[in-house]
Amino acid sequence: MTEQADSIKAPxxxxxxxxxxxxxxxxxxxxxxxxxxxxxxxxxxxGPGELLIVQGEFGQVRWRMPVPDAWFRVDQLEAWPE
Length: 82
Hints:
Elements: H1 2-7, E1 19-22, H2 24-27, H3 31-34, H4 43-46, E2 49-55, E3 58-63, E4 70-73, E5 77-79
Antiparallel strand pairs: 1-2, 1-5, 2-3, 3-4
């Protein structure tokens, strides 16, 4: 029975094309936030950004403005409420 449970993979929370935003609480005090600029733009927390690629535990997000794409850990992202 445990072999079957191990073979079932949890569904990915996001996939390519998903609209997301950065979860402020999940991002605060993370290793990434400590190594980044302290004054992050508000648009990453307000969203929406489009998820371009998911590789492992990271996702590349493109914002709907003329700024560079950014990589975030998937557990720091949340679905954008439409």
